[in-house]
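FORM 12-B: Structure-to-Sequence Request
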């Protein structure tokens, strides 16, 4: 089990009220190739809300455990968002955290989270700087640049992402950064 220094505070949103943080997700193809969200660790986010579970050998009765790394992560302020890997598109938005919430320096770990929005779609720089087309390869979206590129035009792909995210996750506002 991964050990860490206990945090300064364990919050109970049922007592303190809703806790809202910023999260980032990767935009990934689902099993049918449609845009979906996954946590930065690759865990699928199948609908508007998600419940955390510990995947360590010793499962905890209460998730997140202050001495483990389990839980759904969000930052306390958008300026504290870690740099996003620029090879894939990302969606950044508010999330409402519920259940047990652990407050650590600059971030939360929660038992449950719900996508709140509004959010923005962050594209890799290479997609922004060139005429780009998008394809699905090996379970990930790839930007293909140049006049002989193949796949879906990036503008059409962005519209498709907006439509699918609204359908799958509710009234989510998707804008470009």
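FORM 12-B RESPONSE
SEQUENCE OUT:
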């Amino acid at each position: 089990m991964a050990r860490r220094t206990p945090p300064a505070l364990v919050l109970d949103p049922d007592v303190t009220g809703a806790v809202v943080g910023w999260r980032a997700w990767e935009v990934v193809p689902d099993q049918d190739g449609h845009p979906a969200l996954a946590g930065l660790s690759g865990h699928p986010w199948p609908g508007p809300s998600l419940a955390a579970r510990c995947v360590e050998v010793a499962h905890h009765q209460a998730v997140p455990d202050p001495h483990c790394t389990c839980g759904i992560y969000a930052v306390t302020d958008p300026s504290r968002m870690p740099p996003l890997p620029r090879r894939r598109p990302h969606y950044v938005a508010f999330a409402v955290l519920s259940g047990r919430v652990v407050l650590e320096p600059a971030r939360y770990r929660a038992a449950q989270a719900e996508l709140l929005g509004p959010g923005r779609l962050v594209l890799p720089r290479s997609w922004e700087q060139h005429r780009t087309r998008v394809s699905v390869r090996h379970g990930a979206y790839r930007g293909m640049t140049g006049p002989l590129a193949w796949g879906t035009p990036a503008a059409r792909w962005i519209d498709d992402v907006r439509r699918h995210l609204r359908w799958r996750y509710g009234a989510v506002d998707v804008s470009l950064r």
